[in-house]
Amino acid sequence: MTSGTVTAPARTWTAVCGYDDLVPESGAPALVGTDQVAVFRTHDGAVYALSNHDPFSTASVLSRGIVGSRDGVPTVASPMHKQVFDLRTGACLDDPEVRVTVYPVRVRAGRVEVGSA
Amino acid sequence: MTPHTNVPPARDLVVVGNGMVGQRLVEAVRERDPERRWRITVLGEESRAAYDRVALTSYLTGTTADELGLVPEGCYDEHCVLHLGDAAQDIDRVARTVTTASGRTVGYDALVLATGSVPFVPPVPGAGADGCFVYRTLDDLDKIRERAGRVGSGVVVGGGLLGLEAANALHSLGADTTVVEFAPRLMPAQVDQGGGEVLRRRIEGLGLTVRVATATERLEPLDDGGLRMVFADGDVLDTGMVVFSAGIRPRDGLARAAGLELGPRGGVAVDSGCRTSDPAVWAVGECAVVDGSGYGLVAPGYEMAEVVADRLLGGSATFGESDTSTKLKLLGVDVASFGDAHAATPDALEVVYADPVGGVYKKLVVTDDASQLLGGVLVGDASAYAALRTMVGEPLTDTPEQLLTAGPQVSGLDDAAQVCSCQNVTAGTIRAAIHDEACHDVAAVKGCTRAGTTCGSCVPLIKTLLAQSGAAASNALCEHFELSRAELFDVVRATGLRTFSEIIARHGSGRGCDICKPAVASILASLGTGHILDGEQATLQDTNDRFLANIQRNGTYSVVPRVPGGELTPEALITIGEVARDFGLYSKITGGQRIDLFGARVEQLPAIWRRLVDAGLESGHAYGKALRTVKSCVGSTWCRYGVQDSTSLAIMLETRYRGLRAPHKIKAGVSGCARECAEARSKDVGVIATENGWNLYVGGNGGFRPRHADLFASDLTTDRLVVLVDRLLMFYVRTADRLQRTAAWLEALGDEHGDGLAYLHRVLVDDDLTICADLDAAVQRHVGSYTDEWAAVLDDEEKLKRFVSFVNAPGTPDPSIRFVTERGQIRPTAADDDTAAPVTVAGPTLEVVRR
Description:
Chain B: One of its GO terms (biological process) is nitrate assimilation. The complex is a heterodimer of chains A (about 120) and B (about 850). With about 120 residues, chain A is mostly beta strands. Chain A has strands spanning about 5-10, 10-20, 25-30, 35-40, 45-50, 65-70, 75, 85, 105-110, 110-115. Chain A is built from no helices and ten strands. Chain B is about 30% helix and about 20% strand. In chain B, helix 1 packs parallel to helix 7 (about 300-310), helix 13 (about 485-495) packs across helix 15 and helix 21 packs across helix 24.
């Protein structure tokens, strides 16, 4: 594990990269403990984090998906078979049965930090 | 014969002839007879089952015999038997049996003659000589093709509809073609003198020679194997072959021998129920004469087949006065006639629009008070044909002048109006299919109603009906853009906007998606806006373009270096092998004559490229919607059959178009002779060598819906070939839909403009849209600005930063990627792999040495 900042007793935060390292409207893969996390920065500057695991293909690839919107909802599309996920909730918008894990994420002093799920 | 039981026994129906009409009869009976009251035996003379004779000529330009086939799957079984290659020879009307050439005797309760017609060969001395052909069957076409390949020239005797079809065939085979017509104009039965004149000029403009008002007196064999034609006016013409296509005669020999009543000028006489003088015998199609009239078109034949099917099952249908309207594309020229084309109705008026320069002639025939449309002739532009034909006999809604210049409005098309005359489908039937069967595109309407499946001339009308119903699929790209890809391309090109953010802000809504972002990225790349990973563009790319490699099922990528024309030096081959070995990659030969290296993790890609680029290799764009490969054979350099240097041309073409971003991938092939070892006709762009240069084919496809490419131009010099391919590719880049291969694009152009290939000719050769100079310049800009996308990333620290497994642990491989070994190479683990099998985590840990 890399450097962690403890802000609340129940949750560990892991700084994964600088906010400026995130290209607007794209994702980046990060390792948080043993979890693979996809961190996204949207057009409006907001930051989101989902599990990088694509439940359809079972490959760790969601960070490489195209970031966009559907009916105003910020989304990422799996690069494998293009299922679209809501960046806020992890819900798959093409299959109501499927949801990916959402991680808490925040920006502190120009660093992007991901919390344990 | 049939046993007596309480259940009505099946009766025997024998159909003589398996042409279009005979086949239609069988299908019509089977549709109406689910209880199988009729046991059917079909006797066909040809070795092939029914095929689309209307589209016969397309057989020479790429359509296969199978594609022309008309027999639906499951049509024939133990109760409905088809005997091919066994002609009926004798009918015994007393015993009610038919005997065939092979000696087969079949009993019948009902007999249908569908023997069609034979080409009429004028009684000219020498007409039976070697080198004389008729134009009727696929076998005829095979013989004509074989001969045309050996002799350089040919004459078609007959300037009617069939004659011009045959001339088209000879012309497409590269023969120097002359049409000889006895009447004072071409297509005398369909068009008037003015229309015939425009047609002649258009056809001569294509390089054919036309002789009208010419009678052939005799044919003499020449020492070189050719033929000399001697005309009545004393002129002579030496030629390599002669095709007689001067009309047809009903095949009534069987009926004649059986003592059935014939028409005054031949043909099997039938009543309005299509029954002959023997109540057990019927006749349909071109062999039949209904109340004194014979028909040489498929639509009346189909109608007769339906009448007989109805009657065999107890109905009382009758054959009405059939619509003899015709629309054809002859040598790329639209010709249509409908209704009373020759103004035979008393006091009929003719309104003519003629543009001899543009090669357009239109005539409407109306009643003397101009209140009703009676018929018309269209030459050069028959776009209004389908709609005009439905208006015959109806009160005119516009003046004849408006109809001629602006075309008719189809909004008020009555439900009873016949849209497809070949299959007799009304506007009401099509509307019902759209609303009740949820047919939302032309293909669905075709499948549901059969409309538009024979000659296709009504497809524009079907599209209009779809559009009017509101059912037609919107061509909007996605929820973010109302525009189609082609419209968006024009907008981006014209406005000069060069970022997605600007484009979506001005012309779209929301923040885009996995559909519009790659589409915009492709448009920007086609317009030459620098590296595809520059700035914001990187975020628009699908993962393959984003990582310049092809994603595989476990999230690793495959890497394909460019191997132009499939030509590879030993050194390059060794480098590729060493890279595969050192990085532990699975290697496989692709279908495009190159080598694919699988199993590369994101963070390995730059190091792999470094090795390849240092050895002089570059990106093969296997990941891009772009030119992939130009496959080739070794050509005349090595091959004893080759007639041109196909490898050099393939390398030149691949180098010229490498990196060109398009709506979908583009594949090409070059074959050094007609044996076609490079399989060029399955490619978007196919080139096949001839003795005189190159033939260019377009719109081929393998994959889910295979399609042979169509011949676009023949015997081109290399320079001319390159000009045409330049224009073709750039026009495709600009106008195709997203993910539309050239095959579908060409078919869509055909649906929109009547004939996709002819339309492409007008745009790319005749420059009707005056865009050729612009297309040429766009290709030049592409060629001049090409850079290797891999090398550019290696030179850019910012871009290299994205090639990491984890932003916070760039050196740690993704632990979920696992391989097992199979046949000496890696493969991704599968769910059912034995857990005890040797598993390699994140690829072999070989030391990677820079050299």
